[in-house]
Amino acid sequence: KLEELIVEFRSAIGEVDKKASLFDLKAEYLGKKGKLNLILKSLKDAAPEDRKELGIRSNNYKIEIQDSIDKKLAQLEIDEINEKLEKNWQDITLRDSVRDLGMNSAGYHPVTIIQREIEDIFLSMGFDILDGPHIEDEFHNFEALNIPATHPARDMQDTFWFKDMEHLLRTHTSTIQVRGMEAHKPPFKFVGPGKVFRSEALDASHEAVFHQLEGMMVGENISVSNLIFFMKTLLSEIFKKDVNVRLRPGFFPFVEPGFELDIECLICGGKGCSVCKQTGWVELLPCGMTHPNVLKAGGVDTDKYNGFAFGLGLDRLVMMRYGIDDIRHLHSGNLAFASQFKAY
Ligand code: FA5
Prior knowledge:
The chain is an alpha+beta fold.
């Protein structure tokens, strides 16, 4: 009987191609009322001299059955994964715009669209495009930018610190200035777009994760007029119409002199709304002449070179360009919202 049982089991397990039938088979052979147990129960009727040997054999069969079931289960799970991989296969090298998102026309996120437009504008003026890490150290986010630990300016940007208190999520793309100076010999000019992170109270114009685009130019005899020229070119290319801007003094430890370039709010036409906090103006583009301490920290010879830098608020620029009245739409993940923007 034992021999028959194991032959029958071996052929049955060969037929199994689903987890559910495997579990049924396990119950049929190894369950409390299963075939093997029935045989074990009947051992007591066997001749005493055979009992020991029968006991050993049935135990070996039990181990074989359990083993085969485990192996089969592992195999079925691998098959399942392979089947899923086969079914859900995607060519990730395809451009996003042709991937089927189940929408009428797939497109880029408006921040990406504007970011690429700006990159093209600066590329055409001979700038490089640089990148930097989201997780930074104190040196690149603060110290090299002339903001020592005791400086009150550290409180201007509410920082997400890591537990080690040495690393942080970068609070601004000015970190890219430092990394750019470390990697390049002057003269150079580059822009560096990217995500930045601040522990902020959220409202129509403030997000905790948002985007900036840093710019820096270092060379001989760079002046405020160079800075203003590039800012004007940027804005006229992006808006393709005259927009009202105002330049006022601004304080940032890494520039001297520093300016705040505000744009007249295009949501309310300067009348006052929740985006501009009823002021009619939106802070968009702080900038200034790079502080010598920053150039020195970046290894630039300040006897020979100077420079300017700016830090554009990309999300706010996108809001002004498209008339978006709340920054939170941008990061809502709402496809109906995102699909309104034309592909780049
Ligand atoms: C800075 O981050 C400086 N690093 C900019 C800079 C660079 C100045 C180079 C001088 C030279 P500020 O904290 O003001 O500055 O942020 C820059 C821009 O980012 C703001 O003008 C605004 O457009 C945008 N911004 C700031 N906070 C938020 C926020 N919480 N949500 C969305 N946009 C924001």
